[in-house]
Amino acid sequence: MRIALGQIMTHTSECRCGPSQRVINALVFAADLGGNVYCSPDNGQTWNSVTTLRAPVVDLRTQSSEIWALTDGAGIVRLTGSCP
To answer: Do the strands 76-80 and 66-71 form a parallel or antiparallel pair, or are they unpaired?
Structure first.
């Protein structure tokens, strides 16, 4: 599913949070407090939905080619460093 950047910003402004963002392998990953994780293969012009976690994502971390989502209530979740 492709999502316009404006939809992400609208969603994050509704929950009054800024998205966590990390870059890995030239892909941009972002997450919000709704548990939604997104990726962008084109430097933020368009966004793909990666997954929705069962808890708010409070930060994203990278290690090698992996993305780790730090959540508020579901622990730490390992995500692949690929963009659907």
So the answer is: antiparallel
The half-sphere exposure of 73 on its side-chain side, counting CA atoms within 13 A, is: 8
Question: What pLDDT, in 10s, does the model give residues 6-65?
Answer: 444 333 333 333 456 666 667 888 898 899 999 888 888 888 999 999 999 999 988 877
The region, left, alpha or beta by phi > 0 then psi within -120 to 50, assigned to residue 43 is left
CATH number of 52's domain: 2.40.10
Range of the domain at 76: 2-80
On whether the CB atoms of residues 28 and 21 are closer than 8 A, the answer is yes
